[in-house]
Amino acid sequence: MSNGFSWCATNILELPQVPVNHLQSTLSINQSGEVFGKWRISPLDDISHERYICEVSHPLIEDKLRLALSEKSKHVLLVEPDSQVIERGLVVKLMRRPPKEDGPSIKFSFVGPLKLHAGVQARNIVMNITIGDTENWKQLEEGEIAFDILEETGRELNLTVSGQENASEKYQSRVNSTDPNIASWTELHHASWKCDSMIVAQLVQSKVNLDIRDELGRGALHLAAERGNEVVVGLLLGGGVNPVQRDCNKQTALHRAIWGGSKIVVEQMLQSSCGQALVNIQDELGRTALHCAAERGNQNMVRCLLANGADPDIQCYRGKQTALHVAISRNSEEVVQVLLQGPNGKKSNPGIRDERGRMAIYCAAEQGNLALVELLSHERPFEVEDNTGLTALRWAVKGGNPKVLVEAIERHANS
């Protein structure tokens, strides 16, 4: 119906209950309603038709199942990863990623639940997959078989296929290579940039080095954070990646997440075990994540950072500007207001001077932004001089906005 969410007719009393010893979740769901996690996958061709029980709670789902079972090669059966004998599962359809799009190379469309008469055994492969929105995704070509595609993917990723380990020292060496001849990106870098959660999950499980950096100093977490993919970021954090690693510009993955624009990923990183260590790290120019959020004019990011301990009064190295100075230079009234209010966190101090001795109101006056001047005018007097001897009134003259000038004159007269 919307993204990965879809309507499904079912009876809540018929849903399976999770045993106490299975409380550790192997599945996750993202904001789009897509489900990612580990499954044991078997081909429908290995199960005789007589074993199927297609009795479900709604005739539309039953019809979808019957259609899927008439096209077995395009579908597979998903079973709980610990199950050795198949008694029930989910029928899904394998789809290929459209050209010029990022994300997993394959994804699955949910069809419906399937029960079996007596437990059966079948070929299987254990892997992490995504079930979700496949609108505009490509169906398999004539002659392609879903399970064969998964087996090939499994071999490439050194997965456990039918209970046999296919570990490859050569593959591990290639994954961990930082040879500039391959553009300094490992398999993990490529998968993280493409938001391919399936491949990232297998690489994490294979215990590859998650902290290898490319020639720009970026680790896989930098790339995933910038792309705003919470599933890949979660896999890397869960796998033990170093979240405070810095690139050649001294930026962490949190800086890149701000530029990427995903509030969910920013929250995810701030709520990790290293969140407090991350929030106020400065890059080579002295900019914190809050400086970056202010520069983007993103008030939601600013709120999130303040609520998680961001210090709004940290000054960058060049220009000695705080996040408030930056927001004013971008004429971002909403961000300025949030910084002054400091919701759930520390308020910005508008009296802090930049490298030129200018307080926030001087910058607003120079910008000629009346709304910002009005926001700041009650905070600081207009007659205080900067390093060059100019007051806010003189900066208002330089700004050239008559309304700001009138405001400055009135405030100056009353101060």
Kindly summarize this structure in a few lines:
This protein is an alpha+beta fold and about 425 residues long. It has 18 helices and seven strands. Helix 4 packs parallel to helix 6 (about 220-225) and helix 13 runs antiparallel to helix 14 (about 335-340).
Inertia-based shape: elongated
**What gap, in angstroms, lies between the N and C termini?**
60 Å
Number of strands: 7
Task: Describe the sheet with the most strands.
Answer: 7 strands, antiparallel
Low-confidence stretches: 20-24, 158-175, 177-182, 392-402
- Portion in helices: 25-40%
Order of helices and strands: EEEHEEEEHHHHHHHHHHHHHHHHH
Mean pLDDT: 79
Strand content: 5-15%
Q: Radius of gyration over alpha carbons?
A: 28 Å
Please give the count of helices.
Answer: 18
- Backbone structural class: alpha+beta
Protein name: Ankyrin repeat domain protein
InterPro entries: Ankyrin_rpt, Ankyrin_rpt-contain_sf, NF-kappa-B_inhibitor
Pfam families: Ank_2
Organism: Talaromyces pinophilus
